[in-house]
Design brief:
The protein has 343 residues and is of the alpha/beta class. The protein is 40% helix and 18% strand. The chain is globular and about 55 Å long.
Length: 343
């Protein structure tokens, strides 16, 4: 990995993945500006040492100038269900917003981009493990908008010499220090399971137990967020002028829903009741990545592949977040007892 420091803009850097990547960039000696409108991110998620600009993707033109070397782009709406109910939001933010970002990069002479893409671009897989040349047939507007952005980036590279890498994630999990998942609403399995362990939910729903898998539940490829962040730093260094490189990121090994729940029971020491419900439409039995291209082209190798380790990091973060929330509530209560009107 290059040791040459760069000045970079991280859009969506107050979010889960963007915040961890921003922290890793700072640790590697890069100068980081975070652009985030805090619609889904958190001010506390911006790592110490980063310059913070509150704004939308469309505000990148007000930030970028010739002093920047690259953009790492995480600012996207990313809830599958919401994209089905409100597709216009996703086309406006993910596609139109990125079009303006590309224009701002072109105008300011910033010629390197690392894009946070998704395995949702593939839709129902024809075969597994999924490679980058698999058919792209997204089954929801979220995946469709991410695929549209990948097409836009390819055109920008061919026409204007942009250096770009798109990283298509599968299931990201775990935590990195003080940064972890805090989505609202939450839709990811591991944090939902941990909410049951914390007593915030009565049970975890398992949608279908009759899939053609060893235990009947869906298999998914989980990647630790710290491993994911390392891939972004490698991509920043490996991006080549005029090329749009697309790489899948995953462990190449699937864990079933039941395996995740059992591992969470072992890590947390809580029983975690299960509620079995009918299958959800569009849930493939197996989603596992081939990350061979990332290994060959980026030199990337995940090192935090143990499911228990991934869940333990996520659990430690969830517990620290709960303690911070309780401390805040206790402080507010103390203030009320000292004479303030808390109603």
């Amino acid at each position: 990995m290059s040791t040459q420091p760069k000045k970079v803009l991280v859009t969506g850097g107050a979010g889960y993945v963007g915040g961890v990547v921003a922290a890793r960039l700072l640790a590697a000696g890069h100068r980081v500006t975070v652009l985030d409108d805090l619609s889904t991110g958190f001010r506390a998620g911006v790592p110490q040492g980063a310059e913070f600009v509150e704004g939308r993707i469309q505000d990148a033109a007000k930030v970028l100038d010739g002093s920047y070397d690259a953009v790492l782009h995480f600012a996207a709406s990313s809830q599958v269900g919401e994209s089905v109910a409100n597709p216009e939001k996703y086309w406006r933010n993910n596609v139109a917003g990125t079009l303006e970002l590309l224009a701002a990069m072109r105008a300011s002479g910033v010629r390197t981009l690392v894009f946070s893409s998704t395995a949702a671009t593939y839709g129902e897989p024809v075969s597994v493990p999924i490679t980058e040349d698999a058919p792209t047939a997204p089954t929801n507007p979220y995946g469709a908008t991410k695929l549209a952005v990948d097409h836009m980036i390819s055109g920008e590279c061919a026409a204007h010499g942009l250096s770009a890498v798109s990283l298509r994630y599968f299931n990201v999990a775990g935590a990195h220090g003080v940064q972890g998942e805090r989505h609202d609403p939450e839709s990811h399995l591991i944090p939902l399971v941990l909410q049951v362990a914390q007593g915030r939910r009565e049970a975890i729903s398992v949608f279908g137990d009759d899939y053609p898998t060893p235990d009947g539940t869906c298999l998914r490829d989980y990647i630790h967020v710290a491993d994911l962040a390392e891939a972004h730093l490698l991509a920043l260094d490996k991006a080549t002028a005029g090329e749009h490189l697309i790489c899948n990121l995953g462990n190449g090994e699937g864990f079933s829903v039941r395996q995740v729940i059992e591992a969470a029971r072992q890590v947390t020491g809580h029983p975690i009741p299960v509620r079995t419900e009918p299958r959800r439409a569009g849930d493939p039995a197996v989603l596992v990545a081939s990350a061979e291209r990332a290994r060959q082209r980026l030199g990337w190798q995940p090192t935090r592949t143990d499911l228990a380790e991934i869940i333990r990091d996520a659990w430690n973060f969830a517990q620290s977040l709960a303690q911070d929330t309780q401390h805040s509530q206790n402080t507010q209560h103390t203030h009320v007892t000292q004479g303030e009107d808390g109603r």
